[in-house]
Amino acid sequence: MKLSYEELEAKFVANRKFLVKSQGDLEQSRESQRQTQKILDRTLRILQETQKNLKETQGALKNTQKALEQALKKISKLEEKCNLNSKNSSKPPSSDQKPSGKSPKQKFKKNGAKPGRCGYFWPTFTQGEVDQFIDVEVQKCPTCKGSVKFAGKELIHQSSRDTGKTLQGHPI
After folding, report:
1. Residue 125: Cβ-neighbour burial (10 angstroms; 0-12, 13-18, 19+)
2. Is pTM beyond 0.90 here?
3. 81 near 97, Cβ under 8 Å?
4. Most confident of the ranges 57-66, 71-80, 127-136, 158-167
5. In 83-138, which ranges are continuous DSSP H helix?
């Protein structure tokens, strides 16, 4: 089977188109390969840096673990030392720590009379002992300087004849 010139030319043109298209595809494939290689190279550099950082971190972790072990040993020795007293070692009893006798609340005790305690007042004079009665209107309390309201009780001032001092009985 012999092909005619036109058929051969048509096949040649088709093959040439296919070849041109294949060359374009090949060029695209090579470009894609170059980009993939760049990505691979970048990924390899990142992987190498990560491995280097990992080795450094592992070294630092080993150092930290050693320091932690030493600290734990030191702590256990100090705890053993703290737990020693005259009963379980050759230390004298005077070196034992005494528990504090007072709690912090007992230290700060308020001064003065305790709540509920009855107060002491001078006894009032009898009617026979009183020389004179003076009505006095009180504007302010002599003790606290507050305003005075009549509450149904008298303010009683007593004067001691022996000392001359003025004594106050205070409910107002």
Report:
1. middle
2. no
3. no
4. 57-66
5. 104-107
